[in-house]
């Protein structure tokens, strides 16, 4: 095809603008800056991942062993500041308690064989009122690393000097008359300073909240060192094994009250007060009988969901393992003004006791173990029909509920879901004990010949 003389060959057209060396320099700088930013971000991410893995998996390789002189200097600082340091290490206390007869003068048998930090306890009140104590420790050559809980209260102190660390647990006296140990938490660099001396088992124990009964102390010489120890070591060790504490979730309770606009009538408030008094009285009586119990059913739901008693529940529910049942429950409760109004079942099957005080009903449900499940029974008085409420197997933890130290299932949400289903957070006022729970099962019928024994009603 022929083109006229005015037609341009576009293949050889010059670009409208020709890049200058300055423009190429700017582009190169931008590329370099982008690469630098990517490298920096990558390094930060890798550092955080490494730090997380490092801190969550404490090393078990210990570079030092315990020096008895460190223990003596700790005790010296306590004496100078009038602070009592209590040997609080369950492993060492257990070994010494069972084998104290093998002590040999001049030989370190117990303290020097500790794996990881040797644990002592001090009270929060002493640390607060005796600020000289920590200063004195620093003067004696200790590196002092302090950990605080989420409320800014001191919770743990680690002391480094010549040997492996000494660990001070800070015990907080609570209004409900128990001692609280907070979980170990703190800035990563603080944790990094002490983590290399902590075994995996010790680390897991330190990350738990704990609650202890108040205890007395006595002075004993261990490995030639004058130490303060719990007066009844066996009782302390039992208490320590069962000391796991679950605090009530105040954030969840606040969200629940905002979502459902907590607005209680004077009648609701009166019921909650009476129910609280009834829980307190039952706690005193069951503690005296040495019978462990826990918040169950609606009372447990109120604790977990709103840190409170459910105003429309109209009763109190407690759980007890059938192995802990004692006939004295009935006589002791009635002595204290709790009238037995119903007894269902028998010790070998579906036992349930109901008491009443001041128009508030207290139900004691007895739990049976069956394989990997636990269950409590229910009986319909009119027909003799039996029901079974099945739960995944659970263990017990301490909590504080309305200034009462009580137990709840450690697997609290699994327990609640079994009893109330996945919509447990939504309030339900029309609840039928025979049909509403998702974990209820029909369990036969009591024979006519047994009904006078297994269905006892004293107040309708």
Automatic annotation (TrEMBL):
Membrane topology field: Single-pass membrane protein
Membrane-crossing segments per the record: 33-55
Entry coiled-coil feature ranges: none
Subcellular location(s) per record: Membrane
A Pfam family reported for this protein in Swiss-Prot or TrEMBL: LicD
Domain LicD/FKTN/FKRP nucleotidyltransferase positions: 289-326
Entry keyword annotation includes Transmembrane helix: yes
Domain of life: Eukaryota
Entry keyword annotation includes NADP: no
GO CC terms, sorted: membrane
Annotated keywords: Membrane, Transmembrane, Transmembrane helix
GO biological process: glycoprotein metabolic process
Domain (Ribitol-5-phosphate transferase FKTN N-terminal) ranges: 69-275
Name of protein: Fukutin
Provenance organism: Scylla paramamosain (Mud crab)
């Amino acid at each position: 095809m022929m083109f006229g003389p005015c037609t341009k060959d576009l293949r050889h057209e010059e670009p409208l603008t020709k890049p200058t060396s300055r423009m190429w320099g700017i582009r190169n700088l931008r590329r370099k800056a982008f690469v630098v930013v990517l490298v920096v971000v990558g390094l930060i991410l890798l550092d955080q991942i490494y730090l997380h893995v490092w801190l969550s998996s404490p090393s078990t390789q210990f570079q030092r062993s315990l020096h008895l002189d460190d223990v003596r200097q700790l005790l010296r600082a306590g004496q100078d500041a009038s602070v009592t340091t209590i040997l609080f290490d369950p492993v060492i206390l257990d070994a010494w308690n069972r084998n104290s007869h093998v002590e040999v003068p001049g030989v370190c048998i117990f303290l020097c064989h500790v794996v990881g930090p040797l644990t002592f306890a001090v009270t929060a009140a002493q640390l607060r009122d005796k600020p000289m104590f920590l200063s004195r420790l620093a003067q004696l050559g200790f590196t002092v690393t302090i950990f605080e809980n989420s409320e800014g209260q001191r919770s743990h102190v680690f002391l480094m000097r010549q040997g492996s660390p000494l660990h001070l647990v800070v015990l907080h006296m609570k209004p409900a008359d128990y001692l609280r140990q907070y979980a170990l938490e703190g800035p990563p660099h603080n944790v990094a300073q002490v983590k290399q001396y902590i075994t995996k088992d010790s680390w897991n124990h330190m990350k738990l909240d704990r609650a202890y009964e108040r205890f007395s102390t006595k002075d004993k010489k261990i490995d030639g060192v004058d130490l303060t120890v719990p007066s009844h070591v066996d009782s302390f060790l039992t208490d320590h094994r069962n000391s796991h504490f679950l605090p009530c979730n105040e954030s969840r309770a606040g969200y629940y009250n905002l979502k459902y606009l907590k607005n209680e009538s004077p009648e609701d408030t009166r019921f909650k007060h009476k129910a609280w008094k009834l829980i307190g009285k039952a706690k005193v009586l069951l503690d005296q009988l040495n019978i462990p119990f826990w918040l169950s059913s609606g009372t447990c739901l109120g604790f977990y969901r709103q840190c409170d008693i459910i105003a429309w529940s109209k009763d109190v529910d407690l759980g007890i393992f059938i192995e802990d049942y004692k006939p004295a429950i009935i006589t002791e409760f009635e002595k204290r003004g709790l009238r037995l109004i119903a007894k269902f079942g028998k010790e070998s099957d579906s036992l349930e006791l109901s008491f009443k005080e001041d128009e508030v009903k207290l139900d004691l449900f007895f739990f049976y173990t069956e394989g990997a499940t636990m269950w409590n029974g229910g009986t319909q008085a009119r027909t003799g029909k039996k029901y079974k409420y099945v739960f995944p197997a659970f263990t017990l933890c301490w909590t504080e509920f309305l200034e009462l130290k009580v137990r709840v299932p450690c697997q609290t949400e699994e327990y609640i879901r079994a009893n109330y289903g996945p919509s447990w957070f939504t309030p339900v006022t029309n609840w039928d004990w025979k049909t509403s729970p998702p974990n209820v099962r029909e369990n036969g019928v009591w024979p006519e010949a047994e009904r006078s024994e297994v269905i006892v009603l004293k107040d309708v």
